[in-house]
Design goal:
heterodimer, A: 204 residues, mainly alpha, 8 helices, 65% helix, B: 195 residues, alpha+beta, five-stranded antiparallel beta sheet, two-stranded parallel sheet
């Protein structure tokens, strides 16, 4: 590549804001909407996805010159599916409660567009170091949004955050927040807020 | 090496490695997952049966029943078994305990459900009821299921075979009762045919 390489810090930070997978690129919305009915579910989904993203990015950036481009998608999917299954089994074996709460959405990480998207757009063209930074940045951006979304929905839907009572007994939980419509409403408002901040050139 | 051969080799190696990783990881996690399943089963059985020292597993016609017994007696204290059926959205799996004479329920516990969060899930736990979040499953303790369990709406049950429905989740409430009505009588016949 002829152009000067982007600094590593920028490679990481772009995942948090400028290219945030959910707020800016609108990728991986299915798990985002489905599992964020509580903060802990959002966080665990974010961590599991980041694990799969990080491992796949490392392996695929290592193998980027070996995998023929005609079969790259098939190869990527096998690699991603392997790590997702590892994460799924890990949750079932060591954190059965969380595994039960996330249900089928853990195996579905395989088809999360963020992971395949990053492999296509980044890991297959960049070295291991950069791919790790990119995966961590994208993963953090994903975790952050899921955590915020889960916390907001849990706060208004169950009056708690991480099962800790935040709002007192006077608060009558809004059932809609932990139901699917709550996910759409909250995500829509968050994306709107993101766009609003972006227009005002608030950069981090 | 031509392109086709390379594609075949690379994909074969990747899938082979993937299989190796997964099978070795599976052998690490499998015992733990089995252990959690067994623990969950034990907790469910002890939740639905009156106090017992140990339980025996018995297969009748492919159905497993768990008979709670005391150390110093051969008489069972209660019988537990799993019942299944469709709820509002999907499968409902319930562990139910009955007394040895198959007349009344000693407890129920919902094992699996995908009811509407916040409404139908109250069949498991109702966080909006601060004093007793488990009021719905607890209603079934002592309920006499012959000739059948009935659901009442918006009033306190008067008879020993009545259950109050969850407001906003009548279908889920009725589903639980329907599954119990149907499956307990089947299990009763099965059990009595061998005893």
């Amino acid at each position: 590549m002829a152009k000067t390489p982007t600094p590593l810090s920028k490679e990481f930070l772009k995942g948090l804001w400028n290219e945030n997978p959910i707020l800016r690129m609108l990728l991986g919305l299915c798990p985002t909407l489905a599992v964020t009915n509580s903060a802990i579910n959002g966080l665990s989904m974010g961590l599991a996805t980041t694990f799969a993203l990080l491992c796949s990015s490392i392996l695929i950036s290592l193998l980027r010159k070996i995998i023929p481009s005609q079969v790259r998608i098939a190869g990527y999917i096998v690699i991603i599916a392997t790590f997702v299954t590892v994460a799924d089994k890990f949750l079932a074996a060591y954190l059965p409660e969380i595994s039960k709460a996330l249900g089928p959405y853990v195996p579905l990480i395989v088809v999360n567009c963020i992971i395949l998207g990053r492999q296509e757009a980044f890991s297959s063209k960049n070295g291991v170091g950069r791919s790790i930074i990119d995966a961590l940045g994208m993963g953090s951006g994903f975790i952050l949004v899921l955590l915020v979304l889960g916390s907001i929905r849990e706060l208004f839907g169950s009056a708690t955050i991480f099962n800790l009572q935040i709002l007192g007994d006077w608060f009558n939980p809004w059932m809609i927040m932990i139901l699917p419509p709550g996910a759409f409403l909250t995500l829509g408002l968050l994306i709107g807020l993101g766009n609003w901040l972006n227009e005002r050139k608030v950069k981090i | 090496m031509n392109k086709t051969t390379k594609m075949v080799i690379v994909l074969t190696v990747i899938t082979g490695l993937s299989g190796a990783i997964l099978s070795s990881w599976d052998s690490v996690t499998k015992p733990k997952i089995e252990y959690h399943k067994l623990q969950a089963l034990k907790v469910a059985i002890s939740d639905v049966l009156p106090s017992y020292d140990y339980y025996e597993e018995k297969d009748i016609d492919g159905k497993t029943i768990y008979i709670g017994k005391l150390n110093d007696s051969t008489q069972p204290t209660g019988i537990a078994f799993k019942v299944d059926g469709s709820g509002f959205q999907g499968n409902l799996s319930i562990m139910v305990g009955v007394d040895p004479s198959f007349t009344s329920i000693t407890g129920i516990k919902v094992l699996e459900q995908i009811e509407t969060p916040g409404l139908g899930t109250k069949i498991v736990e109702d966080p909006s009821n601060k004093t007793d979040p488990f009021w719905f499953p607890e209603q079934f303790v002592g309920v006499i299921f012959s000739p059948q369990i009935n659901v009442v709406k918006n009033s306190i049950p008067q008879n020993s075979n009545e259950i109050q429905a969850i407001s906003g989740a009548t279908i889920s409430s009725k589903a639980v009762v329907r599954i119990l009505n149907e499956d307990i009588s089947i299990m009763k016949e099965l059990y009595q045919s061998v005893n």
